[in-house]
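Q: Is it fine to ask for two folds in a single conversation?
A: Yes, each is treated on its own. Send the first.
Q: Here.
A: Result:
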Amino acid sequence: MLKKLSIDELEVGMYVKDIILKDTNHKVKNQGSVNSPRTIELLKKQGVVHVVIECDPNQTEDSDKIEQQTADNAPTEEEPQTSLNEELAHSCKLYDQATENVRELFLNSSIGKPLSPDSMAILADEITASILRNEHAITILTRIRQKSNYQWEHAINCAVLICGFALYLGLKTNTVKEMTLGALLHDIGSAKVPKAILTKNDALTANEMSVVKKHVLWGVELAKREGFTSPIIVDMLVNHHERVDGSGYPRGIANNKLTKLSRITAIVDVYDAMTGEKNYRKGQLPQAVLRHLLKNKEKFDADLVQQFIKYLGIHPVGSLVKLSNEKLAIVMEGNRIEPLKPKIKVIYNLKFNRYTKPSDHDLTEEEFGIVSAELASDYQINLNKVLKDIVN
């Protein structure tokens, strides 16, 4: 006999036949016994709102499957969970160090000096470890954008987002670390693009764009010269500008010739590039970029885009939002069960046009809510300074 329960009614010892995700009535096969409270927490984290259980206690085949299918999303024993505030303090230092390391990487690449493979691998490991301890902390920092630092910011942000997304998808930690390293390196060839092109205040000409496109092959040459030859890293460097309809570059390959890894990299690369500050335009709101990815389903893997949106949330952490009580807040922790009700930190009073003492709120417990997403630059708010003041 089958019975449908809410996720909050699920108990250790029950046998799950199907799971049902938020905002859909479709069942997803995910069978097995619930052997620990951790399994229930992981299912909640993945957006499961209802389960279908088998009431017959004697049905125990595949009893370990549900544990196995969710285990890859769990923190490893070596990386115990930390609070957001604790990890945010560490993440600010890590992001600053990453900025220095990646800036040096690009500088050395531009003048032909040897790179430092070991330091990049260590950085990838540290980013992965931080996200395993707390998935929100360092991800918040990817929303702090400075156009003067775009090249290395983009590399670091892609590394953070690819790492978090890959862990969300359940990929193994060692694979995720290598993907994170690949993301740090994916645009390294752009170090050889003339600075006049990279810093141009207008749209590029066709000739300038042809030079920019060479960064892919330049990056592969640099990476191989320095010993970054793993298939994962090479795939990310070669194919991050390819599109599923064959309209990308440098080879114009399409569809089943593109790996899942290259499709993930393409989505994250475009998301961070479009939300970033450029010399010739302001960064776009995450919501606008996510709509762009959804609209262009012929270019980007539609299933992965949907998963990426579920991972990020409607209002990604680090975003500035306007509240119904005429205040501005930063999104601090996402909520995959109720995406419109994340945890926030109020920082600004719109009635009096001034900063307020930061205060934390869980929107599942408040009468006010989010009205809209906002650009910090529209209010002359320096998110970098605000977040560092919060940490300090």
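Q: Second one now.
A: Result:
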Amino acid sequence: MASLALTACGGESGEENIELNVASWATPESISEYMGNWWYQEIEERTDGRLTFNVAAGDSLCSSSEIPECVRDGRADVGQTLTDYSSQLFPMASVASIPFLNPNSFAVTNAIYDLSTEHEGAAQLWDENGLRMIAHVPPGRLLLGGDTELSSLDDLEGLRLRMAGQYAHHAVEAAGASPISLTAPETYEGIERGVADAAGFPLDGLIAYQLKDVLPKWTDPGVGTYTTIGMWINQDVYDGLPDDLREVVDEVTEEFNRNEAARINTEVLTDICDRSLETIGEITQWDEEEAQRWSDELGTSLEELWIEEAERDGLEDPEGYLEAYKEKLDEYQGEVEQDPTIACAERQ
């Protein structure tokens, strides 16, 4: 049973005060926290406080890996966490984990948002999961951090590399490294204890998880974005909201996907770049030829694997979804002047 709480103020539809419980993985100063807070606060303001959110501290109401199930079974009304922790529920979003396919956060966010309703198989699977998608937003491009420079495919050979992203794991294995599964909060200690030698992370991890303090050398290998942060609301909870509150939720969600997620992403990552470079000095970029060598080594193998696994996980017509997704990426890519992670790497 969903945990939605109603307080009647007169008993008529449109007058209820409603508080929704949020299970979040967000740590202070993470891009997840900034994005989630914008969505919660905008809805609270536009509903004059009739719809509010009780946001639990990260990993307190539900652990990061079980948040989607918490939202599905009603322990939480709204959830936010890394898609990869329950990737079997989200083949519609795990497509964003295919390396060298996804250019920037804005394009990926809008492509997944569009296809959640435009692709029949995706819409059906969202309905079957009992979740209404709020957004799936990449936290940024993949960076690799190590004790020494990781400037080529050969430098990855033999590394124990902490990696998120369902298909990024396969790419790391193809490069001769061993992917290590550590949650984001576990990574700092995992590096200190020697569980992993290096880490794959977006830029915000250097501050949110203090990775700049344990890994001094960071580089952009040209992989692009490689995972998403998902936000969802329990479908029954959403359906049970008064019509006027649902309209506000839809309005804010639309604005978040179309503009605000990208704005927040750019502002937060620009600030994180400033603070990170004070410690690590620079973020480098792989030569295009080296990035292409990694891409060529993978070929279309991970796209084919995604199709196979998406079909297994219940997505009808995954081939059509992937084709439509690529078309959406092409459509939205041109609307971004420069990715903030690339801008940070070029600030030398």
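Q: Anything structural to flag on that second result?
A: Two points. The longest strand covers residues 17-24. The radius of gyration is 20 Å.
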